[in-house]
């Protein structure tokens, strides 16, 4: 039903999408003609520079996951999302480590934040349903928190997702936008479909393509329904006015086309649901090492990686020797919800934080789904602690 409402609304964007797609195609043809290679299309034209949002309208991203709330995470995060060079990465990290980000994340992911928004959510829920189509704000909050609770957007001074945090990388300088429903400076005038579009494609209502620091690639694994739920959640927040600075990108980001297309509804088959959750929660940013260019090294998918400060993330593939092959699905699910290993020891460091901030919220069904998926990925005989 909501889909019926959803698609027509998207129509006006259809042209834009078509335009971006044709740019892509043209570019692909040019590449082919030049015998150029690589998956990474180089900076081309990029979407209509003219539509480059005037400062104010910056990026209304939706759910940058603050993930770990740690420097570690931030680094990994940026690395994963984009092919940033290591040096740039560092810059980005420094900026972000600033404190706001970290602390912001903490507050945000912590329970206070949830509590504070609860009232609003409850109060606005009935109205929100009408406004946001079929979106369920409570489920939207759940999904948003699992992805990291939009922590990159958390403005510590304002105590809200009012944006302003700075991110630097090879892409230039961007600022997390205000994603509270303030009509002037936030997303108050957006439709739910606008939010969905940003989550899945990284494209603003005005056509601006966001840089991949906003993890729309990962979020394109989110179902339409859940993206609508996230929209309903964001619309249920208290509007906070905060004008965020305009971005200064070095090159316009490439248009992104989700592949596969986001499903209408979240999968119910456990491993498929688990895959969706692992993707949108971005477990890979810590558990998969990166190549030199910052892209995830798929040969070592989920096989563990060095993080910052001598921390090392575990091999979570079903390898008996190096991974969690000996854990039952129940044990994996229990660990994600509580941090307790099968031998009774507790999760440490970054993982402990992730569990405390978000994964403990996993419903029994979802925790079991993640476990089923982790059991289904290829076992990789790799010892991350040996490096
Ligand atoms: C901030 C980085 C980070 C993120 C994000 C993260 N992990 Fe972890 N994870 C770690 C670290 C570090 C460890 C090792 C913890 C320890 O030594 O106690 C770990 C340990 C684990 C373990 C236990 C492995 C063992 O042998 O003890 C599992 C299972 C796991 N993670 C699953 C996940 C899943 C599933 C996700 C995504 C939903 C995820 N992790 C996201 C950093 C992370």
Task: Lay out the secondary structure.
Blueprint: H1 2-34, H2 71-81, H3 86-97, H4 100-109, H5 111-131, H6 137-147, E1 166-169, E2 172-175, H7 192-201, H8 216-219, H9 224-235, E3 248-249, H10 270-281, H11 284-287, E4 305-306, E5 312-313, H12 329-338, H13 349-357, H14 364-376
Antiparallel strand pairs: 1-2, 2-3, 4-5
The structure holds heme C (HEC).
Describe what is shown at a glance.
By secondary structure, the chain is mainly alpha-helical.
Give a count of the beta strands, DSSP E runs of length 2 or more. Answer: 5
Mean pLDDT across the residues is: 75
- Total individual domains: 2
SSE pattern = HHHHHHEEHHHEHHEEHHH
* Main sheet overview: 3 strands, antiparallel
Count of separate DSSP helical elements: 14
Going across the biggest sheet, name each strand in turn: 1-2-3
Estimate the strand proportion.
Answer: under 5%
- Using only C-alpha atoms, the radius of gyration works out to 20 Å
Any idea what the shape is? Answer: globular
Q: Strand pairing plus helix content: what structural class?
A: mainly alpha
Fraction of residues in helix: 40-55%
Report how far apart the termini are. Answer: 52 Å
Uncertain regions: pLDDT < 50 for 5+ in a row?
1-132
Bound small-molecule species: heme C
Description:
The protein contains 14 helices and 5 strands. With about 375 residues, the protein is mainly alpha-helical. The chain has 2 domains: about 200 residues, no CATH class; about 120 residues, Cytochrome Bc1 Complex, Chain D, domain 2, CATH 1.10.760. The strands form 2 sheets. It has a 3-stranded antiparallel sheet. The radius of gyration is 20 Å and the shape is globular. It starts with a helix and ends in an 11-residue tail after the last helix. The site of heme C (HEC) has 28 residues, from α2, α10, α11, α12 and α13.
């Amino acid at each position: 039903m909501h889909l019926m409402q959803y698609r027509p609304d998207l129509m006006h964007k259809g042209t834009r999408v078509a335009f971006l797609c044709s740019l892509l195609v043209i570019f692909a043809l040019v590449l082919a003609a030049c015998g150029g290679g690589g998956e990474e299309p180089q900076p081309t034209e990029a979407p209509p520079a003219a539509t480059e949002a005037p400062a104010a309208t910056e990026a209304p991203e939706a759910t940058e996951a603050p993930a770990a709330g740690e420097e570690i995470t931030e680094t990994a995060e940026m690395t994963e999302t984009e092919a940033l060079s290591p040096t740039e990465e560092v810059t980005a990290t420094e900026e972000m480590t600033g404190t706001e980000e970290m602390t912001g994340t903490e507050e945000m992911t912590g329970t206070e934040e949830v509590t504070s928004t609860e009232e609003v959510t409850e109060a606005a829920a009935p109205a929100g349903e009408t406004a946001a189509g079929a979106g369920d704000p409570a489920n939207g909050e759940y999904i948003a928190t699992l992805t990291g609770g939009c922590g990159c957007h958390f403005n510590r001074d304002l105590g809200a997702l009012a944006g302003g945090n700075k991110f630097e990388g090879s892409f230039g300088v961007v600022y997390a936008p205000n994603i509270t429903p303030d009509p002037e400076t936030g997303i108050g005038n957006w439709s739910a479909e606008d939010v969905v579009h940003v989550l899945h494609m990284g494209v603003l209502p005005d056509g601006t393509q966001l840089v991949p620091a906003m993890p729309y690639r990962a979020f394109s694994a989110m179902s339409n329904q859940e993206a609508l739920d996230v929209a309903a959640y964001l619309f249920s927040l208290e509007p906070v006015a905060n004008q965020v600075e305009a971005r200064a990108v070095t090159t316009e980001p490439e248009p992104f086309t989700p592949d596969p297309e986001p499903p209408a509804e979240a999968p119910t088959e456990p491993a498929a649901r688990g895959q969706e959750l692992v993707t949108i929660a971005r477990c890979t940013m810590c558990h998969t090492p990166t190549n030199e260019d910052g892209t995830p090294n798929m040969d070592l998918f989920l096989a563990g990686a060095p993080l910052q400060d001598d921390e090392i993330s575990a091999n979570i593939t079903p390898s008996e020797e190096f991974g969690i092959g000996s854990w039952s699905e129940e044990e994996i699910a229990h660990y994600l919800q509580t941090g307790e290993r099968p031998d009774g020891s507790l999760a440490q460091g970054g993982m402990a934080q992730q569990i405390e901030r978000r994964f403990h919220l996993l419903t029994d069904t979802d925790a079991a789904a993640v476990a089923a998926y982790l059991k289904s990925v290829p076992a990789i005989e790799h010892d991350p602690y040996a490096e």
